Amino acid sequence: MVELLSSKQKVIGSSPIRGSFILEFRIKFYSIFNLMKSVFFLSLTGSAKLIGAGLATIGVVGAGAGIGIVFAALILGSARNPVREPRLFQLTLLGFALCEAMGLLAIMMAFLILYA
C-alpha cells in the first residue's frame, strides 16, 4: 500500500499534464512581457499618463475658486464691521494658505503621474 501511494505521487509529480501547464504559463508570461515592449502598449500608457495628469489638475480650479471666495468674504466682512478687520484678515490668510495647499497638492499629484 505504501509503495502504491509513493508511485502515484511520483507519477503525478512528473506527469506530462504538469509539464505542459508550466510550458503554457511560460508562453503566456513571455507573450505578456513582449506586449509591454510594443509600441502600442507604450503609446497607450503614455496617453493614459497625460489624461490622468490633466484630470489631476482639476483640483487647481477648486483652489482658485476657494481663494476667490475667501477674499470676497474678507471684503464683505470688513465692509460690514470695519472694527473686526484685523481678525478677519488673519482668518483670510489662514484660509488662503489652506486653499493654496490643496492646489499645490493637486499639481504635485499631476507631476507624480507624469514623471513617476
3D structure, described in words:
With 116 residues, the protein is mainly alpha-helical. It folds into two domains: 1-37; 39-116, Up-down Bundle (F1FO ATP Synthase), CATH 1.20.20.10. 91% of the residues lie in helices and 0% in strands. It is built from five helices and no strands. Helix 3 runs antiparallel to helix 5.
Query: According to CATH, what is the topology of the largest domain?
Result: F1FO ATP Synthase
Any idea what the radius of gyration is?
31 Å
Number of helices: 5
Order of helices and strands: HHHHH
Model regions low in confidence, pLDDT < 50 over at least 5 residues: 1-12
CATH superfamily of the largest domain: F1F0 ATP synthase subunit C
Q: Please bin the fraction of helical residues.
A: over 70%
* Distance N to C terminus: 60 Å
CATH class of the largest domain: Mainly Alpha
Largest sheet: none
CATH architecture label name of the largest domain: Up-down Bundle
| DSSP strand content | under 5%
Arithmetic mean pLDDT: 80
Which structural class matches the secondary elements? mainly alpha
Overall domain count: 2
Q: Which key features would you list for this structure?
A:
mainly alpha; F1FO ATP Synthase; 5 helices; 116 residues; 2 domains; 91% helix
What layout of secondary structure does this protein have?
Layout: H1 2-13, H2 16-36, H3 39-56, H4 58-80, H5 85-115
What's the short version?
Helices cover 91% and strands 0% of the residues. With 116 residues, it is mainly α. It is rod-shaped, with a radius of gyration of 31 Å.
